[in-house]
């Protein structure tokens, strides 16, 4: 109802009531009615004012809600824009650079690149009996001088390429592409076949100046092929199909190689137990020859050698074991190589193996191990950080037997001692003494003897990145 109509009705009602009282005190009633009308009019004005204020408050509240909604929308837009700006900044930020002997450049989206290389220089002396014709005395060589690159690409793809410039020659060592998915890694290119702990351990991380005699004698080398590695927990499986080293291609030789390793940790100790199998089918008319130098590579004389003989295939079996516990390590391998005669004659069988122990004289140092092979030793207290680096002493017995039936290639028994000093992770000095005892050696003495001994002393200076 309209407030003005209400007020008029109330005034009329009061006037009606006041008529009987007029005779008594008209002036008083009039005055009271006037006061009441004034109060009612004031109340009506106040109601009007309150209604106006309520309308204004509702309008202001509505405007405030609209402003709040607009502010929230603006805040959400700003948050999205900030997130986009952060992503753009991260995408535009520079790559991470770490130093691992050389700069290793990597990005968040899976790219990485690292130059790599090594230089090993050997020198030493050979002392052999008079009259053998062996080139003894001082010798030296740049054993390895490699340069290459390695890295990763998005999607689990990796690459590695290295070239060796030692010996006044240029040869490709590793040239591979890899693809990793889950626990499996697929490899294609030229790389080491899956044979022997000693062979698969990098030359940077061996405990003696050269690997065990059988690895070189039986022709373990990098070959062109495809392979797969599966590693899960303590188990490692490796298998591949290979042709030949790229320098010897093309031919029809091919091989299948496999290796299995069980490598559990027992407390703080590392155990390694493994085995390998090798089968090679050789091109018709092929010949093989197994031979070996007296420990060092800077001599071309081989004192044990089968000479060349006909072969249609090779079959090899290897066993390997190692143990690392703090400063102590031990390792041993045996390998049996059988060769099939293409003309139906008896197969020839040969053997090689070694056993070694080693101990660090410096506190806190231990031999590195990773992925089924020995790895880099990292001195606990390197030179340049207040320490003296790591010092390790090693002993080894090395056996190679190339005699079987009508094939008299000779036997070589090596007794070796070495001391290895690593000032830093990427530098090394190694001194190696060896006494090699021969039976049925290739070279005879002036008196016709083929059973004798040879002494070797050699040192190696090494740096890698």
Briefly say what this structure is.
The chain is an alpha+beta fold. The chain has helices at residues 3-18, 22-92, 197-200, 213-217; strands at residues 96-99, 103-106, 112-127, 137-153, 157-164, 171-181, 184-192, 222-232, 235-242, 254-262, 265-266, 269-281, 287-288, 291-292, 304-305, 309-310, 313-325, 328-340, 348-360, 368-370, 373-375, 390-404, 407-424, 427-439, 452-464. The chain folds into two domains: 3-77; 119-464, Porin (Beta Barrel).
How many individual domains? 2
Instruction: Please count the helical segments.
Output: 4
Shape: elongated
SS strand fraction: over 45%
CATH class label of the largest domain: Mainly Beta
The poorly predicted ranges are 7-22
CATH fold call of the largest domain: Porin
The sequence of SSEs as H and E is HHEEEEEEEHHEEEEEEEEEEEEEEEEEE
- How many strands, which pairing sense, and closed or not: the largest β-sheet? 16 strands, antiparallel, barrel
First-to-last CA distance: 97 Å
The CATH level-2 architecture of the largest domain is identified as Beta Barrel
Overall pLDDT: 90
Counted beta strands: 25
Helix content: 10-25%
CATH superfamily of the largest domain: Porin
Task: Write out the strand line-up for the largest beta sheet, numbering strands in chain order.
Answer: 3-4-5-6-7-8-9-10-12-17-18-19-22-23-24-25
């Amino acid at each position: 109802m309209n407030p003005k109509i209400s007020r008029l009705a109330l005034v009329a009602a009061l006037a009606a009531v006041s008529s009987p009282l007029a005779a008594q005190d008209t002036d008083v009633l009039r005055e009271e009615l006037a006061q009441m009308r004034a109060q009612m009019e004031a109340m009506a004005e106040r109601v009007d004012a309150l209604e106006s204020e309520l309308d204004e408050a509702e309008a202001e509240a509505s405007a405030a809600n609209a402003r709040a909604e607009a502010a929230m929308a603006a805040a959400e837009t700003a948050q999205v824009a900030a997130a986009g700006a952060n992503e753009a900044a991260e995408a535009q930020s520079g790559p991470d650079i770490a130093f691992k002997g050389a700069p290793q450049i990597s990005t968040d989206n899976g790219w990485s690149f690292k130059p790599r290389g090594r230089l090993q220089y050997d020198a030493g002396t050979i002392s052999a009996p008079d009259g053998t014709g062996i080139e003894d005395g001082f010798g030296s060589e740049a054993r390895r001088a490699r340069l290459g690159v390695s890295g990763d690409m998005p999607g689990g793809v990796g690459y590695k390429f290295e070239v060796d410039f030692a010996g006044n020659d240029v040869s490709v060592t590793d040239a591979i592409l890899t693809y990793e998915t889950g626990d499996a890694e697929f490899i294609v290119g030229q790389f080491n076949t899956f044979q022997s702990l000693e062979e698969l351990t990098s030359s940077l991380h061996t405990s003696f100046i050269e690997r065990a005699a059988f690895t070189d004698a039986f022709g373990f080398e990098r070959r062109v092929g495809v392979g797969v590695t599966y590693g899960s927990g303590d188990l490692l499986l490796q298998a591949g199909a290979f042709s030949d080293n790229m320098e010897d291609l093309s031919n029809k030789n091919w091989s299948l190689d496999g290796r299995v390793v069980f490598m559990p940790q027992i407390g703080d100790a590392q155990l390694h137990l493994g085995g390998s199998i090798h089968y090679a089918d050789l091109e018709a008319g092929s010949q093989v020859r197994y031979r070996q130098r007296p420990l060092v590579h800077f001599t071309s004389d081989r004192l044990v050698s089968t000479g060349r003989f006909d072969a249609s295939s090779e079959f090899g079996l290897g066993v390997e074991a190692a143990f690392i516990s703090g400063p102590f390590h031990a390792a041993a391998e045996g390998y049996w190589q059988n060769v099939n005669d293409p003309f139906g004659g008896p197969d020839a069988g040969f053997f090689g193996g070694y056993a070694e122990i080693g101990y660090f004289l410096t506190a806190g140092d231990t031999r590195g191990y990773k992925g089924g092979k020995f790895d880099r030793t990292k001195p606990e207290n390197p030179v340049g950080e207040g320490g003296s680096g790591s010092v390790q002493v090693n002993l080894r017995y090395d056996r190679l037997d190339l005699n079987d039936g009508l094939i008299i290639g000779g036997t070589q028994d090596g007794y070796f001692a070495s001391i290895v000093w690593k000032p830093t992770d990427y530098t090394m000095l190694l001194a190696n003494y060896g006494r090699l005892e021969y039976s049925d050696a290739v070279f005879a003495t002036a008196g016709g003897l083929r059973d004798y001994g040879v002494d070797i002393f050699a040192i190696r200076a090494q740096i890698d990145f």
